[in-house]
Amino acid sequence: MLTGVVLSGGTSTRFGQEKGLVTLDGEPMVRLVTRTMQSLTDEVVVAVARGRSPDYHRLLGNGVIVVEDEQDGGGPLLGLTTALRGASGEYVIVSPCDTPLLKPEMCKIVINRGKGKDGAVPRVRGYLEPLHASYRRKTCLDAFERSLSDGMRRPKDAYRLLELAIVEEADIRVHDPTLESFMNINTREDLFRIANRQSCHR
Fold this sequence. Notes:
This protein has 202 residues and is an alpha/beta fold. The chain is built from 7 helices and 10 strands. The protein has one domain: Spore Coat Polysaccharide Biosynthesis Protein SpsA, Chain A (Alpha-Beta Complex). It has helices at residues 29-38, 53-60, 75-86, 104-114, 137-149, 169-173, 188-201; strands at 2-8, 23-24, 27-28, 43-48, 65-68, 91-96, 119-124, 127-128, 134-136, 165-168. Strand 4, helix 2 and strand 5 (65-68) form a beta-alpha-beta unit. It is globular and about 40 Å long.
């Protein structure tokens, strides 16, 4: 069984409102990413900030599992840990809610490279992308929980405990030539730019 995880628990300080609920072409971004995940996986878990689950339940319906962080300000490692606790799959494939151009083909590469290991992480423009990775749920949940208990907040802080494959940029570009899967919407300017890009592709 494979679980899709959508992380929507960030503080959205630069954007000024809950990013997962921001619309692109009339659709909330979290729904766009969730729909991509549903095309690939057996279940989808959306991790949200404390107190925000009613908004996401109303938006996404009963077919999606919504889980809340247990505390505020725990960073992406807490969001991942929360999601893995709510997941059932042997492996999970992860994406942030603010990457609405996520490509299923890119996800498939990461999923396949992670099989037989503790997961796989893309390396794009020289940097690891832990929020676009695949993770073996049980072993990674243990590593993430141990790292959280040590006061760490980044997924990469737990990697020393795991055996992960690296998916290089050249392999990703075969199916996502312009790396659209990694285009985050952090500001309203980003939203405007990506909305215009989508219009040009029609």
